[in-house]
Amino acid sequence: MEWNVLFLIMLGCTLVLLLSGYWIGAGLTTVGIIGLIISGYARNFIVLGNLAWNTSNSYTLTSIPLFVLMGEIILHSGMSRNFYLGVTKVAKRLPGGMLIANIISCAIFSAISGSSVATAAAIGSAAIPEQKRLHYRPRYIAGSLAVGGTLGILIPPSIALIIYGNLTSTSIVTLFKVAMVPGLILAFLYILLNIGIAIIKKQDFADVDISTLADMSWKDAFLGLLPMVVLIGGVLGGIYSGFTTPTEAASVGVVLALILAKIFGEVKWENMKKSLISATKTTAMLVYIMLGAQAISYVWTATGTTSQLVSWMVGLGFSKWGFFVIVCIIYLILGCFVESNSMQYLTLPVLFPVICEYGFDPIWFGVILVILLELGQITPPMGINLFVIQGIDKETPLVEIIKGVLPYIAVMALMIVILCIFPELCFIGA
C-alpha cells in the first residue's frame, strides 16, 4: 500500500473516532491496530506488548505519576486553599486583586503539579466560592482560572515538557530551566491584562472593594504560603542545582508533600485515598494515550510513511517562517478537538524532523509548542480547562467561560510573537 494512502486512511480513522466522542486512548490504539492490519504488519502484533513494556519501563516517564501525586496530595490535604487565601492577602490591594491572586496562585501551584487540569482544579475549588461571595462577575472568575491553569504545562516541572523531551530526545533538565522565564513573563502579562480590565470595567467587575475587607492575619498568610515555597525549593532547587534528576526530584516532592501535609494540612486516610485514586486515573489515561500514539507511530515508521511525509513536506518549498505559521495553525485546529498530550504523540514523530530540517532550535520550539498546547486547553469545543472550571462552577454557562478566556488568547498569541522576535528569552538559565 502506498504511504500516502495509508496515512490518509489512518488520519481519517483518527479524526472520525475522536470527533465521535470515542475515548482518546482507545481511539488511538484502535487506529494503530487498523494500521497494522491494512499495512500487512498484522504479524507484528507482538510489537504492542513491546511498546507497552518500553513505555512502562521508562525512567524519565516515571516522574509523571509522581508529580501528579504530589499535586493531588497538596489539593486533598487542604493546603491549596490556605495557600490561595495567603496569596489574596498580598494581591488584594491591586486593581482586580482577586483575579490577580488567581493568576499568581496558578503560577506558583504550576511549579508543584506540572498539570494544567490539576492547577485549575486546585486553585478553582478554593477561589470560586470566595469570589462569588464577593460578587465578582462569573465571566472574569472563570476566565482567569481556566487560563491560569494552563501555566501548569509551561512553568516547570511540566508534564508536557517531560513528554516533549522524551519524544524528541531533548534534555528535560534544560527544558525546565529555559521554560521558567517565558512562563513567568506570560503570567506577568496575564496580571497586566487583569489590571487593565479592572480599571476599564470597574463598574462591571465586582460589587465589593476587597481592599476594605477583613481577612486573615499576616501570620496565617505566611503559614499558608510557606509549604509551597518549601516544596518548590525542594523540587526545583534539586533539579536546577544538578543534585537530582527530574524523576528523583519528583520522588523528593512526594515525600515533602506528605510531610508538609502532616504539619500544615490534614493527613487522613480518606484524603490520601482520594489522592492516590485521582493520580492513578490520570496516569492510566496518559499511559493509554502513549500506547495508542506509539502504535500509530510504529506503523508509520515501519512502512516508511514518516520519512516519506517529511520529504513531502520539505519539498513543498515553504519558507522557514511560512512553515512555522502552518505548524501554529495545525496545533490551533487540533487544540479544538484533541487533548494536549495526545497532540504531542500524534504530531511530533512527523513534525519534529521537519522542524529540525528547517533549522529551528529544539529547545526554543519546545517552549513555543507548550504555549500552543496551552491554547488548546482553553479553545472550544474541547478545551479541557473550560470543562474543569464549569465542573466546579456549575452555575456559570460554558459560553460565559469562553467569553472570559478570549482576551487571554490574544495575550498568548502576543507571547508567541515576542518569543519569535526575541528567541534569546527561551535560553535564559540554560
Measured as a percent range, the helix fraction is over 70%
Distance N to C terminus: 45 Å
What is the structural class?
mainly alpha
Mean pLDDT comes to: 81
Task: Describe the protein.
The chain has 430 residues and is mostly helical. The protein has one domain. The chain has 19 helices and no strands. It has helices at 3-19, 24-38, 46-56, 63-76, 79-91, 97-113, 116-133, 138-150, 159-168, 172-200, 218-240, 246-264, 269-302, 305-315, 320-335, 340-357, 362-378, 384-392, 398-421. The N and C termini lie far apart (45 Å). The model has no long low-confidence stretch (mean pLDDT 81).
Task: Write a brief structural summary.
This protein is mainly alpha-helical and 430 residues long.
Q: Secondary-structure blueprint of this entry?
A:
Layout: H1 3-19, H2 24-38, H3 46-56, H4 63-76, H5 79-91, H6 97-113, H7 116-133, H8 138-150, H9 159-168, H10 172-200, H11 218-240, H12 246-264, H13 269-302, H14 305-315, H15 320-335, H16 340-357, H17 362-378, H18 384-392, H19 398-421
Helix pairs in contact: 1-2, 2-13, 3-13, 4-12, 4-13, 5-6, 5-7, 5-11, 6-7, 6-8, 6-10, 6-11, 7-8, 7-18, 8-18, 8-19, 9-16, 9-17, 10-19, 11-12, 13-16, 14-16, 15-16, 15-17, 16-17, 17-19
Which key terms come to mind for this protein?
single chain, 19 helices
